[in-house]
Amino acid sequence: MVYYYDSTFDGLMTAIFDIYSAKDNEAIIQPTTENVPFTLYGSHNVITNVAKSDRVQKGLRKLGPRVLEQLYKAWLSHDDGIENIMLSVIRIGLSSGKDPFEQRTHEAVCKLDSIQRKVSREAERMLQFVRFKKLAENLYAADIEPHFDVLELIGEHFHSRFPQSNFIIRNLRHYKAILSTPAGWHITSLPRDNPPLPKDAEYENLWRTYFKIIANESRINLKLQRQFVPLKYRKHLTEFQI
Predict the structure, then answer these.
(1) d(C-alpha 78, C-alpha 56), whole Å
(2) Taking a C-beta distance cutoff of 8 angstroms, is the pair 43, 4 a contact?
(3) Eight-state DSSP code of residue 39
(4) Domain assignments of the chain as residue spans, ordered by start
(5) Residue (of 44, 48, 62) closest to 4 by Cα position
(6) How far apart are the C-alpha atoms of 127 and 157, rounded to whole Å?
(7) Fewer beta carbons below 10 Å: N end or C end of the chain?
(8) pTM over 0.70
(9) How many other CB atoms are found less than 10 A from the CB of residue 2?
(10) What digits encode the pLDDT tens for the residues 169-215?
């Protein structure tokens, strides 16, 4: 049976609940698309149910303090087939009653752990690579284009760091944005066509001056610099703009 879900995490957890309820050992999970491919398998359209999702998440928390977090980070990769790797790992955990990420003799566990680590690393990089521009008094904006959908992993960091400010961080790759005000923060969708942010000479000059001051020209190592600041991220890093 192919279980089609609505591409939300609650939807995925609901699909897993339905799979276990049906005792379906041959289940395949896929996100719903406009053009559902032809399949010889039967299909089931999952109706997202928060109560079912909560029950699955409660069971996963019992396996270890970080199991749910690691699964969620892996899901944020949105890699093709990630749902079925997650299902395999969840089956391993629930059948053993132990943290599946500690059972590294399983290929699915190793693969999923590698994916969630990549997502975590990129989230850490985004904490360093966000460059705000001032749009108006107490209103700031920044653009990023991470490979993975990491906004939910960085939103609390920036909101707690700038609790009295209003700002937006636009994820131009996944068409989402963090909107933060003193009252809180949330994620919203972005249109496909986003105009570039306006120039901000004051902040841009501050970044370039800071970058120049901390640089030691006698110890410049471009290869090491590319390792710590990959070229793919420099498009939105003010200090690298001419």
Answers:
(1) 20
(2) yes
(3) -
(4) 2-122, 130-240
(5) 44
(6) 8
(7) C
(8) yes
(9) 17
(10) 999 999 999 999 999 999 999 999 989 888 877 777 777 787 778 77
